[in-house]
Amino acid sequence: METRARPQGRSFSLNDPGVRAAAYQILVAALVLFAGWYLISNTLENLARQSIGTGFGFLEREAGFEVGESLIDYSAQDSYARAFLVGILNTLKVAVIGIVLATVLGTLLGVARLSSNWLVAKLAGGYVEVVRNVPLLLQLFFWYAALTEGLPGPRQALQPLPGVFLSNRGLKIPGAAEDPAWAALGIALLAGIAGAVAVHVWANRRHTATGVRPPAGAISAGLVLGLPLLTLLAFGGAALDVPELKGFNFTGGLTLTPEFAALLFGLVIYTAGFIAEIVRSGILAVPHGQTEAAAALGLSRGRILRLVVLPQALRVIIPPTTSQYLNLTKNSSLAIAIGYSDFVSVANTTINQTGQAIEGVAAIMAVYLTISLGLSLAMNWYNKRIALVTR
Amino acid sequence: MKLRKLGAGAAAFVMAGLFAGTAVAGPTVDSIKQRGQLRCGVNTGLAGFSSPDSAGKWSGLDVDICRAVAAAVLGDANKVAYTPLSTQQRLTALQSGEIDILSRNTTWSLTRDTQGMDFGPVVYYDGQGFMVRKDLGVKSAKELNGATICVQPGTTTELNLSDWFRANNLTFKSVVIESLDEVSAAYFAGRCDAFTTDGSQLASLRASVAQKPDDHVILPELISKEPLAPVVRHGDDQWLDIVKWTVYALLEAEEKGITAANVDEKLKSTDPTIQRMLGAQAGMGTALGLDDKWAYRAIKSVGNYGEIFDRHVGKASPFKLERGQNALYTQGGLMYAPPIR
């Protein structure tokens, strides 16, 4: 019997597949590194020749431009870095609220499309078909035009409730004035929510132990609404910052701008159409035998959906829905077309004023990559947690 | 054996890369002549400066500058490819090499001049103003405290707005929309109280986009200097010279009374300045790297500066703007061309 003797430790030959594999990999890695070095040095030399600056030093310079709205204090004298932060916060604001609302609306629509009521099913179907087939940018323009041209100017603002004004400058509602009552109210609300969670945990335990479910819903509602109300009565009311028309605009109070509203409506309505279809497919993916068995056990339709169908459907629903969430976040970059100051809009203006396109685009990519990866991580964790373990 | 061949191939590739060195952008005039077309960056649609008509044909003051340069370099004013650009895209498009010349009512500023671009001569001296609805009863920009103002992003306008309001201790809210169509729609719909941009743009929009032009008034204050000039990339001096001297030729033609109609007779003139400019005396064209009829062709295709101005934004246009600062220096304006000799 002949066995080919393997070469000993030190001497290696290219006939050895292991050595060959290693050699190819080193070669490919070297080529990739060389290509990278070539591209980067070429870019740097061309930029230097055109005397365009490089590096992120521009972030400390004064921005010089205003933004339409911001969650934190910002003025034209702040640095570009702060402007970037404002943009990131604006993007996150619209992305988070958009994701929550789109999920709610999409789920309702998906379930509605499966309804046995013919009209409801057809309406939901019609909505999905229309919304999925019109480009998002057009939908955003439509909502923006509807809000700016459909609503009257500030001097003829609609006043549905005292202190609430609706005009083409946005929806103005009374906000919180400087008053210690608000801090106490906030604490009471948090306490109420914590109490409600505790009540639910206790009720579940009682339910598992004795089979009788205490009225957890009523108790937690009482806590969440009652505690803040009691605090309010104790303080004798809290001061409101009511908006009033001074000169050109309303001052005071909280504003919901038409730009934010149009972007939110457009994104939510568009993405809800896609999520509706995903939810519908998830529900249809659960074998009908499950529904029949649950009905045979005497569960109501709502309980069947909640306890039997949805847990199994969620396995199918969550991965495509994660994609839709990422799409919503990236689609929010269309904000520049309707004047909402999201991150892409701020970064684009910065690129224009400083001329540093490469750093600006790299920043945009980094921000969206971070947001998307964070979202994917969260959804994957959730997916793993609710995955059914099959034996 | 296979590995040796692979290794040889890889080594050859690496050597080729090393010897190729860094990629260098070639002289602009050569690439224009090779392509047979001048790539001109223009506005998405600003009547009087660069806008397409219903057949897609571009016309305007900025468009005529490009046509004059194309006539000087390529011999035919129609050999131009127009790329409509928004305020956000225009400078990056020039820096990246997508266009050869940016003729898009762009303000000459220090930051832009040092960012890899060079500016040709000013073709329109402008200033930044405000347009408001007449029924607001505002007579001066100083009364705009707390107003909502529409502005386009990535412009000197945006920066001047913040600076001027800060300097005058006034506050404002901004509505920043990229597309000119959308931002003017927002203003005319009443989303903002005032619209700020160059005075010439305001006049153009009021005359062309407003449903009732008399409902809007342009406030008297000009809060900044906005010299509008064509822009080219840094690093190609010959191209910059060609663009500069084409514009100067158009100004000089107005000074000397040469129009598109009489340029043929002026070829026979005995005035040495005109002879040098139109190529009857050799030398000026070859110094620029073109043939001697460069200015003759430019003037013949678009006329002199005065004709261009009147045709697009002056007496013969719907805007009827006064020459004002854009008149020749001999008539109290700022337009002064260095001698072509």
Report a brief summary of the structure.
The complex is a heterodimer of chains A (391) and B (341). Chain A is α+β, with helices and mostly antiparallel strands and 391 residues long.
CATH topology (level 3) name of the domain at 126-226 in chain B: D-Maltodextrin-Binding Protein, domain 2
**Low-confidence parts of chain A:** none
Enumerate the spans of chain B where pLDDT stays under 50 for 5 or more consecutive residues. Answer: 17-26
CATH C-level label of the domain at 126-226 in chain B: Alpha Beta
List the helices and strands and how they pair.
The complex is a heterodimer of chains A (391) and B (341).
Chain A: H1 17-49, H2 80-113, H3 118-133, H4 136-150, E1 158-161, E2 164-167, E3 170-173, E4 175-176, H5 180-210, H6 216-235, E5 240-241, E6 244-246, E7 249-251, E8 254-256, H7 258-285, H8 288-296, H9 301-331, H10 343-354, H11 357-386
Antiparallel strand pairs in A: 1-2, 2-3, 3-8, 4-5, 6-7
Helix pairs in contact in A: 2-3, 2-7, 2-10, 3-7, 4-7, 5-6, 7-9, 8-9, 9-11, 10-11
Chain B: H1 2-20, H2 28-35, E1 38-43, E2 51-52, E3 58-59, H3 61-74, E4 80-85, H4 90-96, E5 101-107, H5 110-113, E6 117-119, E7 124-133, E8 147-151, H6 156-167, E9 172-176, H7 180-189, E10 194-198, H8 199-208, E11 216-218, E12 225-233, H9 237-255, H10 263-266, H11 272-278, H12 284-288, H13 294-302, H14 305-312
Helix pairs in contact in B: 3-9, 3-13, 9-13
Keywords:
heterodimer, A: 391 residues, alpha+beta, MetI-like fold, two-stranded antiparallel ribbon, 66% helix, globular, B: 341 residues, alpha/beta, D-Maltodextrin-Binding Protein, domain 2, 14 helices
